[in-house]
Amino acid sequence: MTSKPISNSNSEESITILGIGSLLSERSSRVTFPNLSNFRSGRIPNYRRVFGHAPSVFFQNGIANSDSLEMASLSAECVDDDASSGFICAIFEVPNDMMMKDGTPSMAFLEREEEFDIASVSYIDFTAEGEKRREGGILCTRSTDESYIKRWGQKRFEEKYAKYDMKTIWGWKPDSGLRPCAPYLRHCVLAAKAIGEECYDSFLDETFLVDRTTTIRSYLDSNPQIMATEPPPALRERYGG
Hints:
This protein is α/β, with parallel strands linked by helices and about 240 residues long. The protein has helices at about 25-30, 55-60, 105-110, 145-150, 155-160, 180-195, 195-205, 215-220; strands at about 15-20, 35-45, 45-55, 70-80, 85-95, 100, 105, 115-125, 130-140, 180, 205-210.
């Protein structure tokens, strides 16, 4: 996992988070960031939102299905060569609280988002005065198994992934058949819908399976039962939409 130096508009007192999956829900966001402020929507250009990796937390929480490969989560991946790429996200500020230090993510922040690369990116803020392009939104982006092991060590990889017979976090090929974790996908869809029609349509049409071709709208049309797949009681606050 590579920490990217962050030079942005965030003050020492707060940082701007860009939510693309579970953080589309303000309620779920407050589980992780109880002191967040100014929850709103915006757009991240030049990135694609993909269900392309399998995180350990879904196995730990008992919501991954390794038989059907319904165990994928979301990340954003840079696609600078596609000017039309991008998607609607949630935006909010959180107190720094040592989450960033000397221009790089702190260890506490990295622990919170352990499998990702943490990037500072440009984003479009939807304000009452119109759209404003800003710098310095903190985004969880695609990483590699090698980066994870370099940061956290082989032992941690074995404890969190090999324990569940998982050989990779990020090495899923477009034709692997990896599918979204059903309760997580349901949560993201409900959260996007709660923000508004534009965010909802963006999630359905600008979010892709691991093949980078199949949209979530198409996937749900073929798998309508997913929207009836509720999370276990212990996760209803975090993954309840």
